[in-house]
Specification:
alpha+beta; 565 residues; globular
Length: 565
C-alpha cells in the first residue's frame, strides 16, 4: 500500500518578476492599457448608475497548425491575432449588471474587440479601446436596468450573496514563453505518419495533425492590477477511425502534448503507437457488442481523470451553487461525505508538470486578476470547498483563483489541474485481482475495464435529470477466470451521488489527462492527474449508432501497399 506523498513535492512554482522588472515590451503595453483604463474610468465612475469596476484583458495569439492525410498536407497555416475583452460592471458589488436574470437568458458584462497587431501605445489601439469601452458601458447600463426590473417581479434568490468580490491589487509579470519549432520537419513527419495510416484497409478515415498556440495575456483593471501571463503549448494528434457494418463508429487516437519540441516522442515511437492503435481498431471492428449491464468496473488512470473532471468537477464550480437553474447536487453538502472515503480531490493550477509531463491546466493568475490557489475540494470523501471565481456564494465570499475563460467569453469558475489522491493505493495488477474478487462476490458473469475515454457530458440544470454519460473508446470484458476480450458499444451512465460512493479501491499507476473543456466561458485548457480506480457497481448502456453503412468503396490509398493488414 502506498500513499501519494510524492505529489506534494512535484508542484512547480511560477517564474514571477515584479512589474519594475518586466521586459520593456510587456511593460509598455501594460502601461498603455492602464493609462487608457484610468482615463476612461475617471469619467465613467461618475455616471448614474455608476461604473464601479472595469478591466481590459488583451490577448496576443500566435498559432501554427498543420494537417496531413494519405501522405500529403491538407493545410499548413500560421495565424497572428489580437483581441481585447472589455468588462464593465454597473451598480455595486451587491447588485450589478451580471446578476442572474430569472426566466430569461443570462446577461453579460463583456465586449470583445479586435486590436491591431502593431499595437503598443498606438492610435489604433487607443481607438479600439475607446469604441469597445463605449459599447461595454452602454450594454452594462442596459443590463443593470433589466436586472432591477427583473428583481421587482421575481422571487428572491435562495443565495443572496453579492454579485462580485473586488480583487486585491497584484502587479506581476510571468516570463514570456517561447516554442521553437521546425515547420518543415513537422510537415514531413505528419506526411510520413499519414502514409503509414494508409496501409490498413480496415481504416475508413484518419487524422494526423499538429497544433501550436502561444498566448500572451495582459490584464489591467480599475483596482490597479497589472498582470502579464504567457503560455505556449504544442500538440500532435494521431487518429484512426472505422465504421462497423452495423453502423457503429469506432476510433483510436493518441495525443502528445509539450511546451517545447523536446517534450515530444520520436517519430519511431509515434509510428509504433500508430501500429498499436490500428490493431486495437481492428480488434474493435471484430468485437462483440456489450448489452446493458451493471457490475464492477475499473476506470484506468487517464479514463478515471476524465471521469472525475466531467462528472464531479463541473458540480463543484462555485458560481453554479447560487443559480436557481442549477441542480445544486452538492450545494448544501459542505462537511458531508459525497464520495468514497478512500478518495481526496484537489485542484492545483500552479502545478506545472507531473513526472515530466506538462499539464495544460497550469496557470499562475486567473482571468479576474486573482492568483491561482491549490484548493482542497474533498478530503477523505468529505466536501470542503468549491472552485471560486470572484462571484461570491454563501459561506464562500472570495475567489480562490479559478475564474477562467477564453477570449470573448465571460468569466465563470472552472477547473485547472484536478488531482485525485486515494488514501491508500495498490499496484495495478493487484487492482485487477480485486476486480476478479468483486465479480465473484457479486455473482456477475463479468466485469469491465475502461481503458480509454473520449469525453462525455453531465446534466446540471434543474430542468434535466442530474445524470451523466461518458463515452469510452476502448473497453475490455473481464471474466471471473481472468480472461479478457475487447468489446464495443459501451456508454457509462449514472448519477454522481450513487457512482462516487461506490469507489472501493485505487491503483498507484498515476497518469495525466490533458485536454480542453468547453462550458459557458468558452474552451479552457485543463488537466487531471489520477490513478486507476475500481468501482463496485456502474451501469453501461448501448451507444447510439449511425444509420449509414461503411463505405462501399475502399480508400484508394490502401492500393499503394502490398501485404495489407
Amino acid at each position: 500500500m502506498k500513499k501519494l506523498l510524492f505529489l506534494l513535492v512535484l508542484c512547480v512554482g511560477g517564474g514571477f518578476v515584479s512589474a519594475a522588472e518586466c521586459p520593456a515590451e510587456q511593460d509598455a503595453l501594460l502601461s498603455a492599457l492602464s493609462a487608457q483604463l484610468r482615463r476612461n474610468f475617471k469619467t465613467l465612475k461618475k455616471l448614474r448608475p455608476p461604473v464601479y469596476y472595469m478591466s481590459y484583458q488583451l490577448y496576443e495569439t500566435s498559432a501554427f497548425q498543420a494537417n496531413a492525410k494519405a501522405g500529403a498536407l491538407q493545410f499548413s497555416i500560421t495565424d497572428d491575432s489580437g483581441a481585447v475583452d472589455i468588462s464593465a460592471r454597473v451598480g455595486s458589488v451587491h447588485t450589478d449588471n451580471t446578476h442572474e436574470l430569472k426566466g430569461t437568458y443570462t446577461n453579460t458584462d463583456l465586449v470583445s474587440v479586435q486590436v491591431p497587431l502593431a499595437r503598443r501605445d498606438s492610435l489604433a489601439l487607443r481607438n479600439a479601446l475607446w469604441r469597445g469601452t463605449q459599447a461595454a458601458v452602454e450594454n452594462a447600463q442596459q443590463e443593470y436596468n433589466r436586472v432591477l426590473s427583473n428583481k421587482q417581479v421575481s422571487a428572491e434568490n435562495m443565495d443572496t450573496s453579492d454579485d462580485f468580490a473586488l480583487p486585491q491589487k497584484n502587479v506581476f509579470c510571468q516570463e514570456e514563453k517561447t516554442f521553437e519549432y521546425n515547420r518543415a520537419e513537422i510537415e514531413e513527419r505528419l506526411k510520413r505518419l499519414s502514409l503509414q495510416g494508409g496501409k490498413y484497409d480496415f481504416v475508413d478515415d484518419s487524422a494526423f495533425a499538429f497544433r501550436l498556440e502561444r498566448i500572451n495575456t495582459y490584464f489591467v483593471d480599475s483596482v490597479g492590477n497589472r498582470i502579464f501571463t504567457s503560455r505556449a503549448f504544442g500538440r500532435y494528434i494521431l487518429s484512426v477511425q472505422a465504421r462497423n457494418p452495423d453502423g457503429m463508429d469506432l476510433e483510436r487516437n493518441m495525443i502528445y502534448d509539450g511546451v517545447k519540441a523536446e517534450d515530444f516522442p520520436t517519430e519511431e515511437t509515434m509510428a509504433a503507437d500508430l501500429e498499436r492503435m490500428a490493431q486495437e481498431l481492428k480488434a474493435l471492428k471484430n468485437a462483440p457488442v456489450v448489452e446493458p449491464f451493471t457490475g464492477p468496473v475499473i476506470l484506468k488512470n487517464r479514463a478515471s481523470g476524465v471521469f472525475f473532471h466531467e462528472i464531479l468537477g463541473h458540480r463543484l464550480e462555485g458560481h453554479r451553487q447560487k443559480s436557481d437553474t442549477f441542480g445544486q447536487t452538492f450545494t448544501k453538502k459542505v462537511g458531508a461525505q459525497i464520495v468514497s472515503p478512500i478518495l481526496s480531490v484537489s485542484d492545483n493550477p500552479r502545478w506545472e508538470e507531473f513526472n515530466g509531463i506538462p499539464l495544460r491546466g497550469f496557470y499562475l493568475f486567473d482571468d479576474e486578476g486573482n492568483p491561482a490557489e491549490n484548493v482542497p475540494l474533498i478530503e477523505k470523501g468529505v466536501l470542503k470547498n468549491f472552485l471560486m471565481s470572484a462571484s461570491p456564494i454563501q459561506n464562500f465570499s472570495k475567489s480562490n483563483g479559478h475564474g477562467r475563460k477564453s477570449a470573448g467569453y465571460r468569466v465563470v469558475a472552472r477547473m485547472g489541474n484536478t488531482v485525485i489522491t486515494p488514501q491508500e493505493s495498490m499496484p495495478y495488477a493487484q487492482l485487477e485481482q480485486k476486480l476478479l474478487e468483486e465479480i465473484k462476490r457479486q455473482g456477475k458473469p463479468y466485469g469491465l475495464i475502461i481503458e480509454d475515454i473520449s469525453g462525455g457530458f453531465t446534466m446540471t440544470d434543474t430542468s434535466a435529470p442530474q445524470s451523466f454519460k461518458v463515452n469510452p473508446l476502448l473497453v475490455y470484458r473481464v471474466y471471473p477466470d481472468g480472461r479478457k476480450e475487447v468489446v464495443r458499444g459501451v456508454d457509462l451512465v449514472g448519477t454522481p451521488l450513487a457512482s462516487f460512493s461506490k469507489v472501493i479501491a485505487a491503483g498507484d499507476d498515476y497518469a495525466v489527462f490533458n485536454g480542453s473543456c468547453g462550458a459557458e466561458s468558452g474552451w479552457v485548457p485543463v488537466s487531471a492527474v489520477s490513478p486507476s480506480i475500481l468501482v463496485a457497481e456502474m451501469e453501461v448502456e448501448k451507444v447510439a449508432k449511425s444509420p449509414s453503412k461503411p463505405p462501399i468503396l475502399r480508400p484508394p490509398y490502401t492500393e499503394n501497399h502490398k501485404g495489407k493488414k
